[in-house]
Amino acid sequence: MELLQTGAVERTVRLDPRTKLVLLVSVSTVLLIGGNGTIMDAARTIMLLAPFGLLAVSGRRGAAAALLAAYAGAQALSALVVPNVDGPLNFLIVASCMIAARFLPTIATAYFVFATTTVSEFMAAAERVHAPQWLVIPLSVLFRFFPTLGVEARAIGSAMRMRGLRVGSAGPVKLVECRLVPLITCAVQIGEDLSAASLTRGLGAPVRRTNVCEIGFGPADAAVLATCAACLAVLAASSLGWTVG
To answer: Where does the sequence pass through the membrane (predicted)?
Structure first.
């Protein structure tokens, strides 16, 4: 039952779940499709920095710094190492850096959405937009699956360190045996527990669900939505061949 309970989420900026989903789609679309022009470059920069900034102001400065450092490292590796390497290694570095540069901001946005949204808030927002149950229920389960799996992964890591097994010292077979196998077992068990908890709490019932959480749009939502709309408009204009900057 506790797996699907609505707990307090630490945050200093409050955004409606619908705004967060629009931001997630906007960031992934603008950064993956791309475009040309000075204004398009500005829109891409805004969409790039937005998730890291939101993570920082929501109290997750460590995660924001780590993800931003990984993005900067990928860009630096592409700029400094690739020109001096040839052959298959060049292709491997270019492909890895390109994937990291394209997807890390989207991963940061998804982390922000999952870390600052409770299950009840998400379901209340989904009901407001009349989303189908076959889509709402799996997504609501995911909102609890990944945080719970993260807790289990940290517990497994603590148990390994207590027994003197570290990533550098333990061999690959021992690492798989002590970390990967328990994590897979925990993932299966978490999925079963979440399914049972969702049925117990009445998810998917034909009656209308009641919510005690408050959702709604505010000034921060208006600013984020306006920024996303402007960046998507610039992207659309660039894709149609219009001169943008």
So the answer is: 21-43, 63-82, 89-114, 134-156
